[in-house]
Amino acid sequence: MSERSAQAKYCTTRCGEIARGERLPDPLPTRSCALSECGEEFQPYREGQRCCSEKHGKLLYNRESRADGRQKPEPWNDKRRDRYHRRRAQKKQTSTGEPVLLADIAERDGWRCHICGTRVGKKIAWPHPRSASLDHVVPLSKQGPHTPANVRLAHLGCNSSKGNRGGGEQLLLIG
Predict the structure, then answer these.
(1) Contact 137, 151 (CB under 8 A)
(2) Is 163 helix (H, G, I), strand (E, B) or coil?
(3) Count of alpha carbons within 13 Å of 163, Cβ hemisphere only?
(4) Which residue stretches does the UniProt record annotate as biased composition, category Basic and acidic residues (predicted)?
(5) Residue 52: which of 67, 35, 65, 69 has the closest Cα?
(6) CB burial class (10 A; 0-12, 13-18, 19+) of residue 159?
(7) DSSP letters for 13-68
(8) Cβ burial, residue 126 (10 Å; 0-12/13-18/19+)
(9) pTM for this prediction
(10) What is d(CA 115, CA 132) in angstroms, rounded to the nearest whole number?
């Protein structure tokens, strides 16, 4: 490494002159936002800037990377379902306890829908109305906790038709 580059404060002399106020930076030409629903004209602050804001840039990147396969969607499994419900519970400022896993709840409830009382098929996949889903006895929207004691197995169709009605049932006492 040369003595000059070890002491250099700026990447180029032009950058140094701009920083010291000896030279004005040349403005980049205005562009329109690459996000299709925006299209707003903006003044870019760096080369290669495609969007008017960081938010639009991230949105565009996510769309493009999902479309060309760089981002693969995470499979909908017990872990992802639990994270989803925990996040919902946190937004409603209700409690979250130990992880609530569909397989554990289904085994505990004997693979029976607690709303209609009929069997829930183990191999029926979402979005079939007879597929397995978790029903909060006291709904999260009514400050019910996201805990195993407040969750029952239900058919997706039964659970959807029930909506956020409920809360009169007794919670399980799990010791």
Answers:
(1) yes
(2) coil
(3) 2
(4) 63-81
(5) 35
(6) buried
(7) HHHHHHHHTSSPPPPPPPEE-SSTTT--EE--SSTT--SSSHHHHHHHHHHHHHHT
(8) exposed
(9) 0.53
(10) 12
Token pair for 66: 């999902």
Tallying the residues shown for the chain, one arrives at 175
Tokens of 57: 């840039």
pLDDT in tens for each of the 175 residues of the chain? 445 555 678 887 878 888 888 877 788 899 999 999 998 999 887 778 899 999 999 999 999 998 998 988 888 888 888 888 888 888 877 777 788 888 999 999 999 999 999 999 989 888 899 999 999 888 888 888 888 888 999 999 999 888 887 655 555 555 4
The residue type of 64 is: E
